Amino acid sequence: MADIHTPPSGPTVRTAYGNLAGEVAGGIVRYLGIPYAAPPVRFAMPTAPASWPELRRANEPGDCAPQVIKDFPGLDVVPLVGKGGIGGRDYLKLNVWAPVAAGPHPVMVFIHGGGFVIGSKDAPIQDGSAFTASGVVCVSMNYRLGIDGFLPVPGAPTNLGLHDILFALHWVQDNIAAFGGDPANVTLFGESAGAMATADLVTSPLARGLFRRAIIQSGHGAMVRDIGVAQRLVRKLAKILRVAPDAAGFAGMTDEAAMQAIEAVSKPTARIDLRDAEGREPVFGISRFIPVHGDEVLPLPPLEALKRGAGKDIDVLIGSNADEMNLYFVPTGVRAKLKGFIGKLMARWIIGKSHPDAGAVLAAYGLGRKGVSVGDAFTRALTDLVFRWPARQYAAAHQGKCWMYELDWRSPACGGELGACHGMELPFVFKTLPLATGAAGLAGENPPAELAERVHALWVGFARDGSLPWRPYDVTTRQVFQLDRGEAISEPVMPAAAHLPE
């Protein structure tokens, strides 16, 4: 818990719930672990935090949402997702990095990734100091994950994790001016699951007026489920936990039991069918826990809402990395092991769990052609199906201004095979490359600091006034700015386009 008795070492600000003291270093004031909501009550909507009568030192980040972080072959993932932990319940908090200089400054609010089951506002690679050094008030938040945040349990509100994010955005509107931020100039940005949440909230009627720009990093709006389909997961988890499949049944579970159940249903071999009526599973097995549509947060699937004009007043920057799925299949050795006849069967089985015509998908990516390995066809197909083409579909559906980027710089990690994998843009965006450098670092040895300067500057310029040095995306020219190359290209239609819903 934050120490409210020790004399402060930095500036103080007045929020709606009490006074906070920050810590100053290098022209940046850092405030950690600010409660934007009360400790969450399972399956209840977020509520306001208790006020504090004395000056509170905001120098401790506090808990993260309950989660278990496992080792990843050959890579240090702690800088990317944090250390995890189980036990703390007072975790609906946020961090603020603010310039010492008086505002108003543009505001950037970051939503962390982690498949809606792991991740934290305190992951080191997402430190907001560089943004603040560039004249931005930067905010990052925790939100409910897994069963507590994204399981549509009968008798409980749906999309509670998104409700938490919305609650934090209201906190920003009410309080960020005290930190020198401009509440009329807020950019919401996120990576992976955080990007999915950002993409969804662009279309949400509950988010109107809470932000004017959005940056969607390796995410889009297609990873949502119908509530009825998602409730198959409710019944599966209830069976594992031996509880009734409703809010009363789940209410008494411990965090430890919840983590064990999440691990059980997350295994590739878990017997759970989350395909829709057309035989499609929009997440391709990456996570069982995603937002649902058909409630007050997302009345419509986000792409349908975009086509009807939802979010048209929000400027959007959306993009992907050239080799997204390498993160999952290169360090684990899966890509290398998929070869020969058995490899073809395995590739078809894996994709077939999420797509009704796996054979046609793999053929479209060269399987069967001379010089194309099973592992390469499989990985490239999933990269486009899961991330790259759905991001282009989102850009095409958005009725307002929308720009598209792609990270084309390829990491030398994993013997030069990791490439521009999922998460690779983060240390460039946040200018935290040293945390991703080294033998076990995502960016390998000697990543280009100059690229970090350029990418970071693009994000800051967009947040400041919506400016970017290339034309918005349209379906005719398909302008995509390649970050390493430093220029926009007219991108061809991907083979995945013929194998995904329009």
TrEMBL record:
Residues 11-486 form the Carboxylesterase type B domain. SUPFAM superfamilies: alpha/beta-Hydrolases. The keyword Acetylation does not apply. Coiled coil: none annotated. Transmembrane segments: none annotated. InterPro entries: AB_hydrolase_fold, CarbesteraseB, Carboxylesterase_B_AS, Type-B_Carboxylest/Lipase. Keywords: Hydrolase. This is Carboxylic ester hydrolase. It comes from Novosphingobium aquae.
